Amino acid sequence: MSSINLIIDGQKVEIEKGMTILEAAKKINVNIPTLCHHDDLCVAGNCRICVVEIEGRNRLEASCATPAEEGMVIKTNSPKVRRSRKTITELLLSEHAEECTKCYKNGNCELQDLTSEYFNENFRFLNLVPDKNYTIDKSSFALQYDPSKCVRCQRCVRTCAEIQGVNAISAAHKGKDMRISTFMEMNFAEVVCTNCGQCITHCPTGALTEHRYFEEIWEAIENPQKHVVVNTAPSVRVALGEPFGLEPGTIVTGQMVAALRKLGFDSILDTNFGADLTIIEEGHELLDRLKRALVDNDKSVKLPMITSCSPGWIKFIEHMFPNSLEHLSTCKSPQQMFGAMAKTYYAEKRGLDPKNIVSVAIMPCTAKKYEANRPEMKSSGYQDVDAGLTTRELALMIKQARIDFTKLEEEKFDSLMGESSGAADVFGATGGVMEAALRTVYELVTGREIPFDGLNITPVRGLDGIKEASIKFENCLPDFKFLEGVEAKCAVAHGLKNARTIMNQVAEGKSPYHFIEVMACPGGCIGGGGQPIPTTDEIRKKRIAAIYREDAGKPIRKSHANPEIIGIYKDYLEKPLGHKSHKLLHTHYTKRNRF
Amino acid sequence: MSKENLKRSDIIFEQYGIKYKVFDRVIEFKSSELIIQELLDSGLKGRGGAGFPTGLKWKFAAQQESPEKIIICNADEGEPGTFKDREILLQVPRKVLSGMGICAKAIGANKGIIYLRGEYEYMLPELQAEVDFFNEHAKEKGLDFNIIIRLGSGAYVCGEETALIESIEGKRGEPRNKPPFPVINGLMEKPTVINNVETFVNVVLINKLGVERFNNLGTTDSRGSKLFSVSGDTKKPGVHELELGMKLSDFVDEFGDGDTKAVQVGGASGYCVPRRDFDKTIIGFEGIPTGGSMMLFNSTRSMYNVLHNFLEFFEEESCGQCTPCRVGTQQLRKGIEAIKSGERSCEYIDDLLKLTDTMKLTAKCGLGQSVGNSFNTIIKNFREEMLY
Ligand SMILES: Cc1cc2nc3c(=O)[nH]c(=O)nc-3n(C[C@H](O)[C@H](O)[C@H](O)COP(=O)(O)O)c2cc1C
Ligand code: SF4
Ligand code: SF4
Ligand code: SF4
Ligand code: SF4
Ligand code: FES
Predict the structure, then answer these.
(1) Which of B323, B334, B352 to mutate to test the interface with A (most CBs of A within 10 A)?
(2) Nearest to A94 among B179, B327, B348 (CB)
(3) Ligand 3: does its nearest atom lie under 6 Å from the Cβ of A196?
(4) Which residue numbers in chain A have pLDDT < 70?
(5) Residue A526 contacts by C-beta under 8 Å, 6 or more apart in sequence?
């Protein structure tokens, strides 16, 4: 790579050829405001807030979209630049229903940040909002769209296309009518949307947000008749600190539990328990499929088996590969397993009437909101999970209660479905379900621990879009002799675009794998659509590192070694894939169409 | 300064006796380098409005190493008040195809596309027949070059070269960031030359007349003759071929109705010249450049209405992706309405003028950048008409 030299605000900078002016400026800590730009996405260059002056040119150029060139002399803060940014901000506001005090994104909004820098006491322009007929779409369980807060940066459009390959949203119409829209301008509930929420975490404003349910939960907590059980997903504890100013990747498990107790939940339990349960069921399911395929020569068995814990992924495959649904594990996600157990096993053990239990899941995810509302998720006889709240909603509840989060003493989960292994923790990162499953499956088959240093299955870790690993079974236990010498081939994909690549192979019958893990969101749940904003690769890496620290610090690292898991099979479920398991822990999928 | 008379010319629509004679000679006898050198010497500038030197564009394209290069003829002709490309395609389509063929030889392109304005669909059968004949003919002459026709999708912004490329690629017609320019990275990421219909015709003229005779037409800065689409309050509406570098006063003497109060040069994105400036305005790259639209307005016309029409056009036809243009055009239209109705004071005009400065500085493409041309010139010259 050849390097080039240029001058930004009087400062010399040497960079690699091909970098943009924005990147060059970042290198010397010159901060240029941006709005349509996002590190995850391709360059758009449409908001124009990042304009800079280049000596010798009359016009200003968008720094995010302009390659730096040898000898350029750039000013990022000239009067011309400042005036332009101010005017552009004002123009954006003139199309915008400025209601910061009534807005969910108040305090975490990139447009608001701009207005605090480029505010104008003598706002010049006319209000265009009354001409616009903005209507809010709350039809989806997962997300809501308020066009009056949209700055038309198309970050959501690029996210849905580039990261997820779904293309549920696009820019429609032109000129003054240009807006973000769905297929045929239908409601979000009616279009092919996976509910993944990635568009939300990439939206700079309050236009796309999650459908919020925390007010209902406040009411349930207040209601003395209700026993409100809460469980928290593995990835929440490594991200919840961020809204309180902590570094990404700070582990706040103990503070989170303490805060939930202060909020008034009756029982603070762990989704990780559900994750361990998932591994037991899913591991046995995999072995069962392998046995039926290899020993019984059963042609109806579908391999590779694909994980099913990411509800955005489930909605995706139902729409895009409806003929491949039998490849999905029939296991419910940890959230739904937990919900079903909460209103059966937990209720029984605690002597509670399940009709009075309100089960709340704190999730990094918006698709979980949709999943909770799926009609098939009522195996306890009630809606198994009453509400899924995002990490962001929980942070807001904690703020509303004015709990000084960072100063809380660490506390422990309640017992009965509060205990978990390190294997459940790694569920939060891409590759984690695979890692957790292999730790258990290998040991089931061979009676020995998986031969990776410190149980860390490094090939499935990290942010590569598609990862592969294989493991050979040797010296198998008598029950699993059929696997002797078999090399189990595994693949991990995160982000639905990568999932599509893997699935195309499966659909063509050319997949070389036995077991595939798919997570809808880039990075896995730690990068979920319900996580704190912003989320970038830098932040994903820090959250992932925290996940593995949490795992490494646990005394129990394997799902099957979790004493509460052993207990629940002894007391209640009897055996994996047994009758009760099938009723409560497994599910089926729905074929959907592509439009 | 003595009054010079208007110089009409008649070379663009001249029908040649033998089909594709100029093209054949160039393909047979001229090297790529020579074609481009002659084009550079001719000083030909693009006829689509932006006026980029054609020889230079082709030179850049020729320098690109790529097994595939593409030539696009921009026949989108969406600028209000322009209809000269239509005449060319109806009367002398062979010159356009020849020009594209010569370009193919010069830059080493194998694929040509005519992006035809959707409303010109009625021309398709005849034009297609002509293209089929040309493709066959080029093959016979040993030129590996094939032209196809694509119908435009009806948006003005799709005439902008990169939006046009997006549109051919089947995407939303939104202009791209430049650089990279299309000659480096255009349609399907291939080096792509885009020229206006009339530009290709001029290439043929240069090769027929020779550089020297071509250079005798027009002025140093504005070589050659040009088609003008004349409309508005005129006795002679239609397409007229005139040498570039004329004085606007001479033009008005010829085409005006005796009561011309202003001429809008270059369509909605061009400039409005009031009567008192006719004498000192040169039409050409040294003065006001134009894609060819000349709209004449007499004293019965309200310049407020003229401007209001233009602004309505822009707020509809902006692609809407960038802030200064999408919102700026709405503010300008609503702004002059508010001034007219008294909701805003007349000083608000100055805020709007400043807004057009920002649009010029920061808009992503030529559309948003040039809205201020007509706005500023109309406001500055007819400010009182905005108020009363
Ligand atoms: C909004 C907009 C509309 C345009 N429409 C046309 C058009 O209809 N025809 C055209 O030839 N050029 C049009 N152009 C100019 C083209 O972008 C491009 O400069 C031209 O086709 C290059 O050809 P030339 O160098 O031969 O003029 C337009 C530019 C803009 C910004
Ligand atoms: S989106 Fe941002 S600027 Fe708009 S109302 Fe909400 S917080 Fe305020
Ligand atoms: S939730 Fe996911 S699939 Fe739906 S529109 Fe947003 S990014 Fe696309
Ligand atoms: S919804 Fe959000 S991300 Fe999408 S264009 Fe509007 S402001 Fe940008
Ligand atoms: S200036 Fe106007 S037409 Fe051009 S890119 Fe911006 S919004 Fe689109
Ligand atoms: S951040 Fe560069 S144009 Fe939007």
Answers:
(1) B323
(2) B327
(3) yes
(4) 1
(5) A235, A238, A239, A364, A428, A429, A540, A543, A544, A547
CATH T-level fold of B303-387? de novo design (two linked rop proteins) (1.20.1440)
Query: Which fold, B225-298?
Result: Ubiquitin-like (UB roll) (3.10.20)
| Structure letter (DSSP) for residue B175 | P
Identify which of B74, B71, B41, B35 has the alpha carbon closest to the alpha carbon of residue B157.
B74
Work out the number of other CB atoms within 10 angstroms of the CB of residue A56: 8
* Residue B348 near residue B338 (C-beta atoms within 8 A): yes
Residues A385 and A255 in one domain: yes
Residues A340 and A251 in one domain: yes
Helices assigned H by DSSP within A54-120: 79-94, 110-117
Which residue in this structure is represented by tokens 């805020």?
B351
The strand pair at B293-298 and A466-472 is best described as: unpaired
How many residues comprise chain A? Answer: 595
Q: Take residue B139 and report the two structure tokens written for it.
A: 């093959």
Cα-to-centroid distance, B272 and ligand 4 (Å): 38
Domain boundaries, chain B: 21-215, 225-298, 303-387
Angle between helices A391-400 and A214-222 (to 10 degrees): 50
pLDDT digits (tens, 9 = 90+) for A334-373: 999 999 999 999 999 999 999 999 999 999 999 999 999 9
String of DSSP letters for A371-420: HHT-TT--TTSS-S--EEEEHHHHHHHHHHTT--GGGPPP--PPSSS---
Contact B361 A59 (CB under 8 A): yes
Task: List, in order, residues 6 or more apart from B285 with CB less than 8 Å away.
Answer: B45, B51, B221, B222, B244
Report the C-alpha gap between B5 and B246 in whole angstroms: 8
Q: Which of B189, B313, B326, B349 to mutate: most A Cβ within 10 Å? A: B326
User: Could you list the residue range(s) of the whole structural domain that residue A145 is in?
Assistant: 126-210
A427: number of Cβ within 10 Å: 34
Q: What is the CATH number assigned to the segment(s) B21-215?
A: 3.40.50.11540
| CB within 8 Å of B82: residues ≥ 6 apart | B229, B267, B291, B292, B293
Kindly state whether A52 is in contact with chain B, defined as any CB-CB distance less than 8 angstroms.
Answer: no
Residue B16 CB neighbour total at 10 angstroms: 14
The 10 Å Cβ neighbour count of residue A529 is 32
Instruction: Dig out the tokens for B377 from the structure.
Output: 């010139």
The answer to whether the beta carbons of residues A234 and A547 sit under 8 Å apart is yes
Give the other-Cβ count within 10 Å of A19's Cβ: 19
Closest CA to B115 of B81, B159, B172: B159
Contact residues on chain A for B363, CB-CB shorter than 8 A: 48
Residue B63 burial by CB count (10 A; 0-12/13-18/19+): exposed, middle or buried?
exposed
Taking the CA of residue B328 and the nearest CA in chain A, the distance in Å comes to 7
Q: Could you list the pLDDT tens digit for every one of the 388 residues in chain B?
A: 334 568 888 899 999 989 999 999 999 999 999 999 999 999 999 999 889 999 999 999 999 999 999 999 999 999 988 999 999 999 999 999 999 999 999 999 999 999 999 999 999 999 999 999 999 999 999 999 999 999 998 899 999 999 999 999 999 999 999 999 999 999 999 999 999 999 999 999 999 999 999 999 988 888 888 999 999 999 999 999 999 999 999 999 999 999 999 999 999 999 999 999 999 999 998 899 888 999 999 999 999 999 999 999 999 999 999 999 999 999 999 999 999 999 999 999 999 999 999 999 999 999 999 999 999 999 999 999 999 8
Instruction: Decide if A59 and B338 are in contact by the 8 Å CB cutoff.
Output: no
Alpha-helical (H) ranges within B150-196 are 161-168
Residues of A catalogued as catalytic: 282, 285, 309, 329, 368, 371, 376, 525
CB atoms within 10 A of CB A310: 29
